[in-house]
């Protein structure tokens, strides 16, 4: 949530502080299910230094939690960055990923419209070719530009190379350079008109880029 909090698509799909708080539980449940799913690899980069842990807590301005956590600081490495890679799925595999359970207050219209756009784009770019798909990557803002996301992207690239399969992802505009740097090529632009500020009635054309990697 720290990484994606300012993302306008996330704020449009989960438009209130209450729904965004409830979303954390949905993410937690889905993350546990994904970790157990043999078709999915969830990767994390951790900072195991106690000093970094304490600095991070201070930075998040959560003094009470920082104090509570200090007791087991040695055992509490901070998650710096995470990624979710889905392994190639062929039509014959009959695999279906466990569905998300969205919190009450989710704007289902925007969520479904966006999901439809991304699915159609992936189909246009890949056809029915099975690929390694990067669904999420996020780095805690305290730790950005230190190569954490690169490690997680490189893991997928190594899988693509080892198994001779393409890699695919939808990139936020912010992350475009990251994927270009690792050899992904822009294949399509995905856009949706969304309300960026409900109070001011402002709208924006939210965009992401479909990227493909071919080993
Ligand atoms: C995009 C994001 C994942 C990058 O994570 P990171 O750990 O900082 O990435 P890295 O340190 O591995 O960056 C590697 C390279 O990517 C590029 N890059 C990364 N973030 C960038 C940014 N905000 N602006 C421009 N280039 C960027 C740079 O070329 C960088 O190399 P450099 O620091 O030597 O110039 C992180 O900023 C983030 O979580 N953003 C919010 C969520 C999001 O948009 N996720 C991507 C979903 S597709």
Description:
This is GNAT family acetyltransferase. The protein is an alpha+beta fold. It has one domain: Aminopeptidase. It is 40% helix and 26% strand. Strands 1-2-3-4-6-5 form a six-stranded mixed β-sheet, with helices on both faces. A hairpin with a 4-residue loop joins strand 5 and strand 6. It is globular and about 45 Å long. About 2% of the residues have low confidence. It binds coenzyme A. Coenzyme A (COA) binds next to strand 3, helix 6, strand 4 and helix 7. The site of coenzyme A (COA) has 20 residues, from strand 3, helix 6, strand 4 and helix 7.
Features:
six-stranded mixed beta sheet, single chain, Aminopeptidase, alpha+beta, binds coenzyme A, 215 residues, Acyl_CoA_acyltransferase, 6 strands
Order of helices and strands: HHEHHEHEHEHEE
Structural class: alpha+beta
The chain-level mean pLDDT equals 89
> Proportion of β residues?
25-35%
Task: Using the 3D structure, state the CATH architecture.
Answer: 3-Layer(aba) Sandwich
Number of helices: 7
**Tertiary shape:** globular
Output the CATH topology: Aminopeptidase
Q: N-to-C terminal Cα separation, in Å?
A: 32 Å
The biggest sheet, with number of strands, parallel, antiparallel or mixed sense and barrel status, is: 6 strands, mixed
CATH class: Alpha Beta
Tally of discrete structural domains: 1
Protein name: GNAT family acetyltransferase
GO molecular function, one term: acyltransferase activity, transferring groups other than amino-acyl groups
């Amino acid at each position: 949530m720290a990484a994606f909090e300012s993302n306008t698509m996330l704020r449009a799909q989960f438009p209130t502080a209450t729904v965004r708080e409830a979303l954390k539980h949905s993410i937690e449940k889905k993350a546990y299910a994904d970790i157990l799913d043999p078709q999915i690899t969830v990767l994390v980069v951790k900072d195991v230094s106690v000093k970094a842990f304490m600095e991070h807590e201070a930075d998040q301005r959560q003094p009470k939690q920082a104090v509570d956590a200090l007791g087991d600081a040695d055992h509490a490495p901070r998650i710096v960055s995470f990624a979710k890679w889905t392994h190639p799925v062929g039509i014959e595999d009959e695999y279906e990923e466990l569905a998300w359970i969205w919190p009450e207050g989710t704007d289902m219209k925007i969520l479904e419209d966006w999901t439809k756009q991304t699915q159609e784009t992936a189909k246009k770019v890949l056809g029915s070719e099975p690929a390694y798909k990067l669904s999420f990557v996020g780095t805690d803002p305290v730790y950005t530009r230190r190569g954490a996301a690169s490690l997680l992207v490189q893991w997928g690239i190594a899988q693509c190379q080892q198994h001779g399969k393409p890699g695919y992802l939808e990139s936020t505009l912010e992350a475009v350079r990251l994927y270009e740097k690792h050899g992904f090529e822009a294949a399509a632009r995905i856009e949706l008109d969304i309300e960026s500020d409900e109070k001011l009635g402002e709208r924006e054309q939210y965009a992401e880029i479909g990227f493909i990697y071919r080993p």
